[in-house]
Structure formats: structure tokens, C-alpha cells
Amino acid sequence: MTTKITEQKMLLGGEWVGREQTLDVVNPEDQSVISTVPMASSDDAREAVRIAVEGKEIAEALSVRERMDILNKVADYVLDHAQEFAKTIALEGSKTIAEASGEARRTAETIRLGAEEARRLSGESINFDQMEGNTNRMGYYYHFPVGVVAAITPFNDPLNLVAHKVAPAIAAGNAVIVKPATETPLSALKLAEAFIAAGLPKKVLTVITGRGRDIGDILVEAEDVQMISFTGGYETGKSIAHKAGLKKLSMELGSNSPFIIWKDADIEKAAQSGVDGAFGAAGQNCLSVQRVYAHEEIYDAFEASFVDKAKQVRAGKKMDKDSDIGPVINEKEAKRIESWIEEAVDAGAKVLAGGKRHGAFIEPTVLSNVPENLTIVKEEVFGPVVILASVATFDEAVTRSNGVPFGLQAGIYTNDINLALKAVRKLHVGGVMVNDSSDFRIDAMPFGGVKHSGIGREGVAFAIEEMSEKRLVCFTIDE
């Protein structure tokens, strides 16, 4: 695949600018260079913050109607140019064209939600007379924007996860600086084009491209940045938290999601749900099914169904409509995943399907008999690899599900409502999906985790709340 995308500039406070030094954007499928973007410097990052400080006054002055109109126009633009967005997502990242098309449509929905939720960001009256001696007081609280939001986004959903930060930030009246993943900056830049076309005032939005080591710390540590919204790995998130100082943080830091299959489950439905959840986007999804715990009474039948369905998942060229999954983001990551598989095999694990690497492609891989102390059990694999295990009791399934430092979402298949409710209470996660895999999300729901999976919640309405502050107003009435 040798398609060439026009060389891109970055958006610095509403102005498109280039730089002498550039970064190549590489298609992971064949390592071809598809575009270049500016390599922003530390001075560029400081300038982005300076411009955003001016931009936050402009953003806050936009009426709710103006914010809504801009966001709705952006959503329309994305839909009108959906094929171009999908092609960009597929070329620079890991998704097949079918998966990328779905992301483009979903992005329009995310932005539309921002428009809808902007009107709902309201306050409440306070009954000050509930305390003795305050019958002459009345008041309320309302929301005001935090100011400047720095949004640091990952490669796996290079368009929709940018929208999940930019749309709420603008809906709440903030200026926002986006630092997209180094591997996948083109989708974010294309979304910026939509905001400019929709009439967003200059200085409200910046999309700055470059290496995190050159510009990341400046954005994170700047006193004029009031909030960091980060999606990425735990170690990076922990480093950001140490450097950020006294500012708001919202972090989605990945997971290692469990999926419990109880003995009363519909085996075929559960197996298909698990396969879809494990291998979509080549497993590069924070919600991906990584560990499956099936009751011993149905384990053999479940394993047979799961493996059969896994072997039908087609890894292939991303622009081929018949491909189910593409490569992982680069060959370095593929080699890491391969080493984790090999470590498991050396420790006695059985490969039931896949297990091989071909360049940046990892075959859809199913493992069993994997020792609990291995990296591939404890950490987030972020690739098309899933582990099957048998459990004797529900308590064992819950204990093993909780036995990792992550807790984003979990899935459970059962027809027993009492068991489902027990899972809801006992699983240490941010979300429990009953009769679905862990890999389920709509853009309106509160999304986030516990433990090493992060702090705060995304989902447009909840992100708007995070990107706002409450201001209390109290009147004393002379009578």
C-alpha cells in the first residue's frame, strides 16, 4: 500500500504552521511513509500554552448556542467527509477500513453529544435556610470552565478519542491543546480542519504534533494549563501525575479485562462475544477481552467454540473490506507481544490458535494453561491475544478477575440475576457488562476505571463535568 497523503501542517492557535524538522507518519502494514508532520519544539509548546491562555477567554465568551452550533457543524462535516476520515484512520493506524468507517461515524455521534450536553450543563439552587439563622439567604451554584485543557491522546482510536476530549472541552467553554499520538497525528489534524470549517474562533484549539519527550512535559507542567486529560499507558500516566502539580487530572490508563462465562450461559453467544471483544482493532483496545474464566462444567465446549471462531478471524490488508483485523501499530510492539507469547509457551502454556508474528501482524492468538504469575496474565497485552482458563466456583472467577492491578471493565455471561448482581458488587472495575464482553461502550456512558486503570470518567456529559468548576453564589437579603 503506497497511498500518499498530502504533507500536513499543525494547527497552532488557529493558524496552520509548518516546521523545518518533520516526523514521518508510517503505515504499519508495510512501513511506507504516507505523510510528514511538523516536529514541534519546546518553544512551540510554550507558544501553544500562551495562545491558549488568550483562547480560554474567547471560548468562555461563546454562548451555549454558539458552542452547540459549532459542534453540530463539526459533526455534519465529519459525516459529509466520512470516507476521507476513515481512509486517514486506516492508513496511519491499525484499523481496517471497515473498523475505521465505524470510528468516523461514531466520532460524529460523540461530537453531537457534546452539542446536546452543552445545554444541560446547569446548576442548582441551594436552600441556605436549612441552617438556623439563615432565613435571609438564598443562592445557587453554576458551572464555569476550567480554562486551558491539555489533551494527550493515543493511537488506537486516533479520531474518536480526540473527539472525546475536544468536544467536551469546547462544550464547557475551554480552550484546548491536543497532543495526538506520534504514530497517528493525521486524524487529529483532519478533525481540526472540521472545527475551523465550522467557525470555531482562532486560539481556542491547537493541535501540536511532535514527540512527547520534546513537548509533553511543557504542556503537563505549565501553570497556565488547568487540566490534563490523558489516555495512554499506566507508567506514562503516573509520570504525568507526578509532574502536573495542582491541576485537574482525568486519566484512562488501560486494562487487562476479565470475562466470566458461567455454566448456564449460551455458549455460542458467549464465545462469539468473547472473540469479537478479544480481537477487534487487533486487540489494541483498552476494553479488549484478555482473560476468560469459564466454569469447568462447560469449559471444554466453550473452548472448542471459542477456538473455532478465533480461527475464522481474518488478519489482512487494512483496505481490504474482507479483512477483520490489521497489524498492530508497529513491528516493535509486535515483537513485544511475540515475546510475551513465547514466555508463556516456555512456561507450559498451550497455543490453541495463532501464536505467530508476521512483521507487524500478530495472528489471532488463543492460549490456555498459562501460569498466573506471567507478564501476559498480569499486564495489558494490547494485542490480539486472549487467555482461556477453567474455574470451579464463582468466587474463584471473581478472585482471579480481580487479581491484576487494572480495573476498567469486566464482562459476565449468565442467566442468574443473583449471580450477575454479585458480580456487579464484587468485581473491582469501573463497569460490569452482563451478557456481553468487557469490550462494550457507548459514547454517552460514564467510562473509566479503578486501580491502575485511571482516575475520573469520560463519556461526553461526564467529561464536561470534569472540565468545569462549580461556583457558589449566595445573596443575603435585607428585609
TrEMBL record:
<dbReference type="InterPro" id="IPR015590">
    <property type="entry name" value="Aldehyde_DH_dom"/>
</dbReference>
<dbReference type="InterPro" id="IPR016163">
    <property type="entry name" value="Ald_DH_C"/>
</dbReference>
<comment type="similarity">
    <text>Belongs to the aldehyde dehydrogenase family.</text>
</comment>
<dbReference type="GO" id="GO:0008911">
    <property type="term" value="F:lactaldehyde dehydrogenase (NAD+) activity"/>
</dbReference>
<protein>
    <recommendedName>
        <fullName>3-sulfolactaldehyde dehydrogenase</fullName>
        <ecNumber>1.2.1.97</ecNumber>
    </recommendedName>
</protein>
<comment type="function">
    <text>Part of the sulfo-TAL (or sulfo-SFT) pathway, a D-sulfoquinovose degradation pathway that produces sulfolactate (SL). Catalyzes the oxidation of 3-sulfolactaldehyde (SLA) to sulfolactate (SL).</text>
</comment>
<dbReference type="InterPro" id="IPR016161">
    <property type="entry name" value="Ald_DH/histidinol_DH"/>
</dbReference>
<feature type="domain" description="Aldehyde dehydrogenase">
    <location>
        <begin position="16"/>
        <end position="471"/>
    </location>
</feature>
<dbReference type="Pfam" id="PF00171">
    <property type="entry name" value="Aldedh"/>
</dbReference>
<dbReference type="InterPro" id="IPR016162">
    <property type="entry name" value="Ald_DH_N"/>
</dbReference>
<keyword id="KW-0560">Oxidoreductase</keyword>
<dbReference type="InterPro" id="IPR051020">
    <property type="entry name" value="ALDH-related_metabolic_enz"/>
</dbReference>
